[in-house]
Amino acid sequence: MLLLLLLISPIVAVSLSYLVKKQKTLLENIAISSVGIQLIAAISIIVSVINEGAYTLNNAFSVSSFEALILLVTTIVGTVAMLHSVGYLRGEQAKKMIDFKRIKECYILLNLFLFCMYVAITTTNPIVMWIAIEATTLSTVFLISFFNRKADVEAAWKYLIINSIGLLLGLLGIILFLSQGSLLTGWASWDSLTASANAMNPLISKFAFIFILIGFGTKMGLIPMHTWKPDAYNKAPLPVVALLSGALLNVAFFAILRFKIIIDSVVSYTFSQNLFIFFGILSIALSALIIYTQHNYKRLLAYSSIEHAGIIMLGFGFGGIGVIGAILHMIYHAFAKSLLFLVSSNIALKYSSSKISDVTGMLTVMPRATILFIIGLLAVVGMPPFGTFFSEFYILLAGFKSNFIISLIAIISLAIVLTGFFIHSFSMIFGTPPTSVRAGESKSWTLIPIVFLAIILIVFSIFIPTQLMQLITTSAELFTKNL
Amino acid sequence: MDILFQIEFIIALVTFLSIVSMNVAKKNTTLVHTYLIQSLMLVSLLSLETYSEMSLEIGIVTLVMFVIKVIIVPQVLLRILKQHKASVSASTYLNVPMTLGSLILLCVFAQSYVFSEFFTTTPILRIFLIGSMLMSFFLTINRKGAISQIIGILSLENCIFAFGFFLHLKQAAALEIGMIFDVFFWIIISTIFVRMLIKHFGSIDVTQLRELKK
Hints:
Strand order of the largest sheet of chain A: 1-2
Shape of chain A: globular
Helix content of chain B: over 70%
Radius of gyration of chain B: 18 Å
Mean pLDDT of chain B: 86
Mean pLDDT of chain A: 91
Distance between the termini of chain A: 37 Å
Number of strands of chain A: 2
Number of helices of chain A: 19
Oligomer: heterodimer
Largest sheet of chain B: none
Strand content of chain A: under 5%
Order of helices and strands of chain A: HHEEHHHHHHHHHHHHHHHHH
Order of helices and strands of chain B: HHHHHHH
Structural class of chain B: mainly alpha
Number of domains of chain A: 1
Low-confidence stretches of chain A: none
Largest interface: A-B, 40 and 37 residues
């Protein structure tokens, strides 16, 4: 029932929001109630998984340890982004950027987006997962072109075409896997697919995995399939970007990892490891160089997302303790990056610009938001005591044991990222604010959800509950048992 | 070879020829009509399966596919072309000889040892099916027009479907219908975006999209 509640809640919210006419407060109440229910349902499911090992609705939807972790992160980021959207949309409406119709569209599409991600995480069928991830493209494309300016439409078109091609390649990979098992007719599940792995053709399976990696890697924004990402992140409303970076990235990677378990049973694990290391280090190194020379803080964060996607890939590629580091990094990055995007949303509302050079004197203009910005910044660059420091440490520790050169390149790249972020942020935080910008904090609706996220980030960085750590280690075992 | 397989083989050949002609077509309307033929081939494949297995489920999938891919999608695309008088703009980055040369290379690649594990009993199917997928992908990247790109993606989807069929992949009917509806929503959304592109940029030529570079 809990899983049903989780899945139905956003759909009910979509239906109710569709019926609302001119009552913005009602729309907001529907959205808030919906994410509230989703959060309660998700936490209850996770508690159930901790106690019983898995939560099954029927043969189509089920949650075990790794799904529970991804679900936890997605729901928390979804809740915070939705709450923040209330204040953000009010701010944009006050600036006459959007009307009621747009606000209604935004709430409907955000709920649809959350629904699609929940389906992708909890389904037991690879094709349903593909349909759900493809549906995330369709639900978010209008959010990217939300302000309906020329550049927004162009960014959305680019996002639609690139991701559609990528996901079709992903579908091809799934078809190649599904076509190989004699057990697989009708409703194929992850379990039946894994069970038939021994009978699969190694060469065809390798092809299939490469297609899946490229397909869902496009959705993740891994280099060189990343070209849609900086533009989409630059043009979409920032609460949406927080969801894209904090939640969807993990969901897309989760899809790849599902197939990693299967390919590791078909051929030697070194095949997927090498691919992960290649795409991981490429994404880290190239995005580090771009981050250093970036002039737009939204694009800066977009490239940082690519870099972190690379770090996570590298962790799974290195194996061993790197896998634990990578899973931790998926959690910490989701919270830290969402936090930064949401603070950036307050910055954008205040300064009406996404250029780093236009944003100066944040500490004077909006001190509370600046403190949150600094927290997010330190977490994103992997400074202690934030969890990202430890997760990156685990990943690099695993890397230095198995791939010294790659780890060295990764460390140098991380140092470039650190320097780049500090240089850019220094000019944003300090200095004299522009005369056109009035000092004053953002409205509480845009600030309180970020404080909530910052508290979660800090608490989880310092202390991970034993039960949660148990979920993490159980999840890691899925990827280390074939090593 | 039994008669059913011979018919399926001919359908694969027509699918292949349709994608070749899409790549060299000069008009968007030709592209849409060729896409219609290609979709009709998929419907024929499913009709044969419905007949051979006497399955109501597959029959329903066939009907849904016919309505969406053969009737609705071409109509939606033709209407947009008619409304915006964009029927003659289907320009490519490469000229026809270069395009044909590229298609030949893709076919050679499809027939190479790389894909030797597929269709070992009927190797020519590699050109028809894997070659078609590669050529659909090529169509998407070689075209300047938004409509052509949409058709390239739809064609790729058709080719993947045909590929799955020849690999004897059988999914539950609900899933097949889910995928077809996914295509339906995709085409609706992409045509909305084509209208938005025309409104903002006055053209469906994607080379005119330069706002992000400013």
